[in-house]
Amino acid sequence: MSRTRRWILVTGILVGAGTGVVRYVRTTQPRETPAAPRATTEVRLTTLVEGQTFKGRIRYAEAPPLLGRLTGTVTSLPKVGAVLKAGDEAYRVDDVPVILLAGDTPAFRAMVPGISGPDVRQLERALTGLGYTGFTADGVYRYSTAEAVRSWQKRLGVAQTGTVPLGHVIFTTGEVRVGEHRVRVGEQAGPAPLYEATSTERRVTFPMDPKHQRLAPVGGPATVVLADGREIAGTVAAVEKPAEAGKDATVTVKATDPKALDTPEGDPADVRLVVQERRDVLAVPVVALLALDGDRYGVEVVDGDTVTLVPVEVGLFTDGKVEIRAAGLAAGMRVSVPAS
């Protein structure tokens, strides 16, 4: 006895608006029961994810601008691309060094003995981070704090006053990468930053039509695909709305492991965002599906020499797999596939 089998031949999967669209051709031919073992595959319990890919570029993350308070002649600037850390010199004005210190509150007054407050505590913690001791970081500028400041000033090679004039330090969080200079040595310094500053952490940015912004909620998952094929897990860090109607938004993705983004700034990188996800579903390769009458589908469950045609409901199509549902169908069962 012969049976008639109609395989679905997949010629393409188009992803759009969250829907998998499959084009197929049905072929009908008789087939005798083969003597050789059937080609089979396992029904798997898995998570299917349909994604949409966007073209992006590796960029350094933004950092707070280095706003100085000194006015005068710029006498020294760091090289573009230099990486500055807490304790390093940011630049010089009238040959006075302006030093980066760790902290997130901008300096707003001179620090002298007798004052107290969160800004003093921040200075004391910054000095502790640089290895200075002999005082308590309690937010009170005592004689012991002034002595630590003198020791620090001695190492800097400046006047050992024990006080910190406004404008002589800039507080910042993390390392700073020096970008394009906004002024040149010899020009006048003012309240604006003297150069662009970025974080040393690389991220991926890409343009997105605002109608797709539902795919990029801040904090949502994203996968970065580098030019060499490596895939890096990440999250959406920011979505910058377009300045004008009809323009694209700018989406920024950060890597879960920032060190994994080790390619140069400006390199291309794809970002894959989740369109829809189906967790804990049964799935088989699309080629395991049979086209039945009435736009229905089925699979052939193989158990030893027994082959049973099981009608199935289909769900998400993605990455060559399809979600299937049927009474009695379970993970671990084997179904027929075309012999390769």
Q: Which features would summarize this protein structure in a list?
A:
340 residues; mainly beta; 6-stranded antiparallel beta barrel; 5-stranded mixed β-sheet; 21 strands; elongated; disordered N terminus; Peptidoglycan-bd-like
Written overview of the protein:
- This protein has 340 residues and is mainly β.
- 8% of the residues lie in helices and 49% in strands.
- The strands form three sheets. It has a six-stranded antiparallel barrel. The chain has a five-stranded mixed beta sheet with strand order 9-8-7-5-11, with helices on one face. The protein has a two-stranded antiparallel ribbon with strand order 1-2.
- The N terminus is likely disordered.
- GO terms for molecular function: hydrolase activity.
- This is Peptidoglycan hydrolase-like protein with peptidoglycan-binding domain.
- Keywords: Coiled coil, Hydrolase.
Question: Briefly, what is this?
Answer:
This protein is mainly beta. The protein has helices spanning 118-129, 143-156, and strands at 3-16, 19-31, 40-42, 44-62, 72-76, 83-84, 89-93, 96-102, 169-172, 176-181, 188-189, 195-208, 221-226, 231-240, 249-255, 268-285, 290-292, 296-303, 306-318, 321-325, 334-336.
Write the layout of secondary structure elements.
Blueprint: E1 3-16, E2 19-31, E3 40-42, E4 44-62, E5 72-76, E6 83-84, E7 89-93, E8 96-102, H1 118-129, H2 143-156, E9 169-172, E10 176-181, E11 188-189, E12 195-208, E13 221-226, E14 231-240, E15 249-255, E16 268-285, E17 290-292, E18 296-303, E19 306-318, E20 321-325, E21 334-336
Parallel strand pairs: 8-9
Antiparallel strand pairs: 1-2, 3-21, 4-12, 4-16, 5-7, 5-11, 6-10, 7-8, 10-12, 12-15, 13-14, 13-16, 14-15, 16-20, 17-18, 18-19, 18-21, 19-20
